[in-house]
Sulfur carrier protein FdhD (Streptomyces filipinensis), 282 residues
Amino acid sequence: MGRVTERRKVLRIRDGAVSTRPDTLVAEEPLEIRLNGKPLAITMRTPGDDFALAAGFLVSEGVLATAYDLQNIVYCAGATVDGSNTYNVVDVRTAPDVALPDFTLERNVYTSSSCGLCGKASLDAVRTTARFPIADTPPVRVTPGLLASLPERLRAAQRVFDRTGGLHAAALFTEDGELLDIREDVGRHNAVDKLVGRALQNGGLPLSRTVLLVSGRASFELAQKAVMAGIPVLAAVSAPSSLAVDLAAETGLTLVGFLRGSSMNVYAGEDRIALQDAAAQG
């Protein structure tokens, strides 16, 4: 099975001084996801939590919603010509009554670690019907102060980032700020899929009383993954895209961007931000 980090020799230049030394890099390898034996997608990822990554990906695709939908996930033996196992191909087996996606849908099955789910035939194909409507969940209220504290806590929990400086992270918090889980990956989308996949495997969906924090931008795909998992609040340390804001407004998702220090922008779902509580504390 692939390692999370790898070592490479580098030429280091510091203030005119030149030296050679080994450097620790984040590992990046392809993962092919098969669904009931049929190739579905390929993503570049950091090895580890591969089964959770595959399960979370299928939650965002609308295939899986509960642990009962998932029969099992296995690495595919004989993934190479010589029959060896590369641990870079997984096959997800669903329960017999699970409806499968349309394999004839025109799409590019390659997804890069930076672009998320690419090659959909149209925007409508991406707007998968959510199994857990956010608007129907009990109200969640979070203060700006609580949100402001989360990036530092995410950063403190990034173990591999400290050694490589090259990983994105996604973390799940309770509405009271308790850290539930954190995953790192070379791709933001993969990190979120690993979080959601682990929740599905543990019978934890929908994540209706949680806050999802991502270390970079909030793209349409990340907003979609939050909606599909029933997460009511998505916060990002950087900017959201216009489509992410549109999707948040349509589905009732609270979307926070530019979460830095005590500053933040709320782009949708501001009713979940306890502004009166924050003013009273001030």
